[in-house]
Amino acid sequence: MKKNLLVAQSGGPTAVINGSLSGLIREAMCHPEVIGAVYGAVNGIEGILQDRIIRVDDQFASAADFELLCHTPSSALGSCRFKMPSPESGAAEYARLLEIFRKYEIGFFAYIGGNDSMDTANKIANYCYEHGEEVRVVGVPKTIDNDLPVTDHCPGFGSAAKYIATTLMEISADSAVYPLKSVTVVEIMGRNAGWLTAASSLSRALGGSYGPQLIYLPEAAFDVDCFLDDVRGALEKEDSVVIAVSEGVRLADGSYVAESMQSGQVDAFGHKYLAGVGKYLERLIADRIGCKVRSIELSVLQRAASHLQSGTDLAEAIRTGETAVQFLIAGKTRVMVALRRISNEPYRIGYEAVPLEAVANVEHKIPREWINEAGNGVREELVRYLAPLIQGETAVPMKDGVPVHFAFDKTPIEG
Fold first, then answer.
1. Is residue 139 a contact partner of residue 336, using CB atoms and an 8 Å limit?
2. Residue of 145, 147, 230, 313 with catalytic role
3. How do strand 347-355 and strand 335-344 relate by DSSP bridges?
4. How many CB atoms lie within 10 A of CB 350?
5. Is 409 a catalytic residue?
6. How far, rounded to the nearest angstrom, does the alpha carbon of residue 53 sit from its chain's CA centroid?
7. Could you give the C-alpha distances from 327 to 9, 109, 154, 354, in angstroms and in order?
8. Which of 28, 73, 79 minimizes the C-alpha distance to 55?
9. pLDDT, tens digit, for every residue of 332-364?
10. CB 275: neighbour CB atoms within 10 A?
């Protein structure tokens, strides 16, 4: 008997998260013999618990709408940062979840998200399996941080990496205009994994004239005195110095470099809110070196730049969504779609199912041997890993000089 499919998005958005959603919905609609209606939950797992369910498969007038969704930034269904409790402590939430699944005759559930979302998907999948509920669950990876384990990389990262490499090139070019000693510190997202900041190296490594001279990642302990020596040494060689630094760089004792400037508040998953390392280093350089200095925080710009999508990233995001549906139809559950790198030259990727329990709450960090000994730059191995992921451009739909975006009607189903 046919069952319906429910899809939801969670966590921070990416420039291609809707590519996965588009691919998933379109692929589901290609299998009417197995899948009935395709529903979407508004604002992730919170939307399910609050019965904010919409019909999504009837909101596409043509193939052009699917394409438009692929180029729409942020999460088209809305997101959340809700920590699903354990079944023991959250019996009410799980009972409500099954109530909604039964109400809409859900037999397939796909959750698009990162580390914490895969934890949620794993809990739901295990609960359904252990209680005999015929609901297959698959995780669809997305994150700009690239910190999910098992998979070679995550859809969403390549586009963010492309944006960062491009932006650091442009910042460097701008900073070099005047013939005076200056330092620009660029703060880039990355709590415990420095993949995004490492991508700043591509602006120089791939033949560009501009890019950061110094790069600092969470995987290498940060030393304030060594940092100041690095900056002084770079200023002796060039008038303009650009520094790329992860928001989560830490001292040898494990504390965040800019911890004194942070609120100490945490999100629903216990993660500290990070910000301020760029401003902290700006003040440090001003006080201890005394040259012209400024800091720039890329913030959400690095995850919302759909106008600078990586063609490779978008294609892989779409394919990941399609593969999730194929896994569900094939009877797979309690798994996540993972990307496996088959070769680098030519670049080829395969898709496989990996257990959700192997992914949930585990972080994938940059190998220390891919960072130089001084901890202020990256090695060739990291550049070779990163380079294929930013290749290719996409044609962004435009009207009157600005991009056009897709929007769902999010009016919940009545009854």
1. yes
2. 145
3. antiparallel
4. 11
5. no
6. 24
7. 18, 11, 18, 11
8. 28
9. 999 999 999 999 999 999 999 999 999 988 899
10. 16
